[in-house]
Amino acid sequence: MRSRDTVIWQIASGSAGRSYADVFFRHGVALIGPGDAGRWSTDRTDDDYGCSFVRRFATEPAPGDIIVLRAGRSRLLAVGLIAGDYFHDEAFGDVLGWDIQHARRVRWFPLPTPHEFDDSAFGSNPARFGQVQNPVVRDYAAKILASPMDAWQRAPLPTLPPEEPDLLSPPACLQHHLAFVHDLLPVWNDPTAFGLTPSEHEIVAHLVVPFFRAMGWPTEHLGVEWQRVDVAVFDSLPRSPASCRIVVEVKMRGAPIESALAQARRYATKYAPTADIVVTDGFRYRLYARDHDYEPTAYANLWRLKASASNLFRRLTRT
Hints:
With 319 residues, the protein is of the alpha+beta class. The protein has 9 helices and 15 strands.
């Protein structure tokens, strides 16, 4: 299978605070983006995909090549074998907010404990995908492959997830806000034309408060910077810990909103012990329900609405 000179690839597992390594392992894939531009093809340029990594990922690896999954510049999470050709899968259009539909099947061996190499083992500014040249990393990966515990190298590949259908009929109350989101996001995503990334305060003012207003919450029931909470949503007046239904923690656009849960839980425990938690960047909303021990309960990406978003809208609508 590995008849050509040994080629070892490395691929990133996400950014700090937003790792999608578990998605790689669960579905037996390696993924990169941006993927919204569609399937890679020879009649398109690297500029169409915003980088050259997509072309390299689609054309250069071969089945049987070794691939390692890294975090940052020095941490190794898994070693794998590429098990198939390139494909584009819309089921991975929103992985923690990333569009990473460019895919390869991989048989992964997740390390029991991440392995730490010396600083910058993958380079001072490692590419999201590329070849591994560091001899220490290459030797470590080769030893994993040569281990007698090699059943994973022949194991059946996990099932790929089905693509979730779009939400065809969003709530009527959200139509204006959704149109606004689709007008605003391309502007905010163009730093050359727009300028600096909007602050969390701007996101609260322009996106989060209008979203909850559209969901039926009166202005007087929305506390901004109430007890240090970015946005607190109250069932009734007076606004108090007992009447606080939702604690909303807001992150800047592009930040990993899921990493905000711990801070939001501290605020909820101290100031609103009966409240659910929502973390958001104004476009993605993830709900953690108190009655489910703050497990992720519902999710919506207003930029790419899927059918499951109706659950979040139902739970956040004022009744």
